[in-house]
Amino acid sequence: MSEHSNLFIKRLEAGETVIGIAGLGYVGLPLAQHFVKAGLRVVAVDTDPGKIARLRRGESYLLHLSAEWVPDAIEQKIFCPATGYDALIGADAVIICVPTPLNPHREPDLCHVESAGREIARILKPGALVSLESTTYPGTTTEVLLPLLSEKGARAGEDFFLAFSPEREDPGNPRFSVSNIPKVIGGVTPECAELARRLYSRIFYKTVVVSCPEAAELCKLLENIFRSVNIALVNELKMLCDRMGLDVWEIIGAAATKPFGYMPFYPGPGLGGHCIPIDPFYLTWKAREYGFTTRFIELSGEINTSMPQYVVSRVMEALNRNGRALKGAKVLVLGVAYKKDVNDIRESPSISLMTLLEKQGALVSYNDPYVPEIRPSQGHGLYKDSVAADAETLAACDVVLVATAHSCYDPEFILEHAPLVVDTRNMTGPALRNREKIFRA
User: Fold this and answer.
1) 327-354: b (≥16 Cβ within 10 Å) or e
2) Bridge partners, residue 400, by sequence
3) pLDDT for 132-163, tens place per residue?
4) pTM for the whole thing?
5) Options 80, 192, 241, 275, the catalytic residue
6) Which terminus in the chain has less CB density within 10 A, N or C?
7) Is 275 a catalytic residue?
């Protein structure tokens, strides 16, 4: 172990380590909470001043994460949220949790990682550890981040330490939090990996060290591609079952009784969120560098991205059954978050559904108790406010489209008052009355 390594370990064991976090979204803020609970001081930056203002008021902007720990942590100065990277000066470890979106050509956009890397290189103290958690293609840590941190001659594994450790967040899932999910770590050098392992062991019950950052980067992509491919499979089967007059949900439930060799996945109106609709394309892009075409991955992406169009066609069929055209029809979309019981609309298929429906001339409104408004600044052209989902509103529409099955929705109430329900999530599956109003999509 080098002198820098020994000092890092000594400070960590004494509880003196200062953790810096770049990016306070679904990944960064829960990390901050857990490090604070572990007794370490956290300084964190986010370029969105609105987030920092809310934290300083003791509020959380994440539906699934309570803010009750924030006021005391800020008052005791063990949690210090800020908008500028100078706040990270003196941090012993800096964890990067910034977005990694796709550009308009469906190619990786690493501008946030590059910007964070340049800022961290400017203020990084000797012997500090940098860990990238943002999901990306194999090689990002060593090909993009390492050169930025080494620009002034600093050497990884000697002057500073660098690792990749993918986030594994599942917002809204009460069974799993940061601490009870194993943490995968890949260091640029064995010493980098060891320091990252010791750091993360303070809040994760289990760490899994792999051979290099590229292995950790591909591990994360494999996890999300696995889901994408299997969701595409059941989405395709759903379309086939609709033609065959079969209930795909019944079939999945029956298959799930097999105690080995099967894992249930469920269809929907398309993929949403900050991971599964995006991450597979990071690997397909990188694979082209090696003259390799990821046909299976790309096919699953095509199926999943086509689902909103399929759902719209099913809405048209349902309305036709009631003697109503889609043009001019009043459509109430229930749920615009990308998954149940969260307030995140990134890549949400509901946005695509509403856009497609309006292009066909439908009069579209939505209800989502967790998303009170939709604005064009969020990356699309919609400008809407959530309406009530009361009996009067349900009765006044021509069709209710269930896009996100929030736990607060009562399927019996909806079926009682709505004239027609197109259900993409099987929310109405358990309903006993008014089943003739249900049209699956």
Assistant:
1) eebbbbbbbbbbbbbbbbbbbbbbbbbb
2) 332, 421
3) 999 999 999 999 999 999 998 999 999 999 99
4) 0.92
5) 275
6) N
7) yes
